């Protein structure tokens, strides 16, 4: 059978990455962002990829370390949903440029993580990535934090100190929550960006800058610009290459892969076994609105793993708040991992039936073919009904 050239190319790419000691996640990421390799022949693309992977080998000589950039910085990029395809394409196009990037998206969509990824895969990776949360700095300190201060510039300035722009020299400055910057500071920031130089507060000397800018906001800056809350000239200076990160609710296909990724990561971190998610739990996850996006999903998975303690993770373990009464299943028996104890299976069946019937005891008992008294006994035994439950 003749294999398609692209299939051969991807196989050679996979073999090349395996020889370099890189993880499967790296291969998936390269495949998604392959636009940066450009429209060239397969042999040329492989040659360029080989050079790039050799650079990764130099930066991460320990094979275990080569998994770190994905584990730490690429969780928001897990998944193949349609909503994420423009993101992968955009990342591939900007990794090797110094273009100013504006990251747009609601809280918890991974803007800060994406900014870190862009920096650490760029030519500036050996220089600092300096992050500034523009909404967290007191108004009276913003100017000196960003631009630095000379000794004696104001009361308390007992020494000269470089600002964030100077600290990011030759690297990347990430301006998070840029929409929270006061108007007067927007003017000063615009001047620094235009002139590519900064003057410290109380100083006279202009310090040349070689800094890449990445900004992020969860606000609608175009509307803020119309209402006078954000300067139009600064808006167009920063909006060179905008990337909008979608809400998790727009990425339904990615929710389960993300959940499994977090569970596997936390399982290693906390040494708590994780085996799988039940179909009912997967359905429950995909039906939630996730207003806190990926960050909320991550916290929910950690809570579920700790609550389950090696048992199947059920929806009621994920839906409770941290301070609520948490139903508990008994600890698993020391049996081989391939065998699930009968009491765990029974607890899972009762819990899922209880949720599917809208927590209706009569319907649950009828569906399971048991009496209501038997249901109550078993539900209390397995912690499905806690002492504070109105049905207990």
Can you describe what's shown?
- The strands form two sheets. The protein has a five-stranded parallel beta sheet.
- α1 crosses α2.
- It is α/β, with parallel strands linked by helices and 392 residues long.
- The protein has four domains: 5-73, no CATH class; 96-246, Rossmann fold (3-Layer(aba) Sandwich), CATH 3.40.50; 250-326, Helicase, Ruva Protein, domain 3; 341-392, Arc Repressor Mutant, subunit A, CATH 1.10.10.
- Helices cover 47% and strands 8% of the residues.
- A hairpin with a 6-residue loop joins β4 and β5.
- The radius of gyration is 26 Å and the shape is elongated.
- The protein has helices at 5-19, 24-32, 42-59, 68-73, 85-94, 111-120, 142-147, 164-167, 183-195, 221-226, 232-238, 252-270, 279-287, 293-308, 315-319, 342-356, 361-368, 372-381, and strands at residues 101-104, 129-133, 172-176, 197-199, 206-208, 212-217, 241-244.
- The model is unreliable at 1-9, 35-40, 59-72 and 322-338 (pLDDT under 50).
């Amino acid at each position: 059978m003749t294999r398609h050239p692209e299939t051969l190319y991807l196989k050679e790419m996979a073999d090349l990455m395996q020889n370099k000691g890189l993880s499967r996640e790296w291969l998936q990421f390269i495949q998604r962002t392959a636009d940066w390799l450009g429209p060239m022949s397969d042999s040329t693309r492989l040659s360029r990829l080989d050079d790039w992977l050799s650079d990764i080998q130099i930066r991460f000589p320990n094979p275990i370390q080569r998994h770190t950039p994905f584990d730490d910085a690429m969780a928001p990029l897990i998944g193949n949903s349609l909503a994420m395809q423009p993101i992968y394409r955009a990342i591939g196009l900007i990794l090797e440029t110094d273009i100013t990037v504006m990251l747009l998206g609601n809280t918890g969509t991974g803007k800060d993580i994406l900014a870190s990824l862009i920096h650490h895969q760029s030519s500036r990776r050996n220089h600092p990535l300096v992050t500034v949360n523009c909404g967290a700095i007191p108004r009276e300190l913003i100017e000196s934090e960003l631009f630095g201060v000379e000794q004696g510039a104001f009361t308390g300035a007992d020494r000269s100190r470089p600002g964030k722009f100077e600290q990011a020299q030759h690297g990347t400055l990430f301006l998070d929550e840029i929409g929270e910057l006061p108007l007067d500071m927007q003017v000063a920031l615009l001047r620094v960006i235009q002139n590519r130089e900064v003057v410290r507060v109380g100083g006279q000397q202009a310090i040349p800058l070689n800094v890449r800018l990445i900004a992020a906001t969860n606000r609608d800056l175009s509307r803020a610009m119309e209402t006078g809350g954000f300067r139009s000239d600064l808006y167009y200076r920063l909006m060179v290459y905008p990337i909008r990160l979608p809400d998790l609710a727009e990425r339904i296909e990615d929710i389960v892969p993300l959940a499994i990724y977090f569970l596997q990561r936390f399982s290693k971190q906390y040494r708590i076994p994780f085996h799988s998610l039940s179909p009912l739990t997967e359905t429950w996850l995909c039906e939630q609105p996730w207003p806190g996006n990926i960050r909320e999903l991550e916290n929910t998975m950690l809570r579920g793993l700790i609550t389950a303690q090696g048992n199947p993770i059920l929806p009621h373990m994920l839906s409770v708040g941290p301070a609520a009464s948490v139903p508990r299943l008994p600890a698993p028996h020391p049996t081989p991992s391939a065998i699930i104890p009968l009491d765990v299976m029974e607890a899972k069946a009762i819990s899922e039936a209880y949720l599917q019937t809208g927590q209706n005891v009569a319907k649950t008992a009828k569906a399971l073919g048991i009496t209501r008294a038997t249901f109550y006994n078993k539900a209390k035994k397995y912690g499905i009904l806690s002492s504070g439950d109105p049905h207990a």
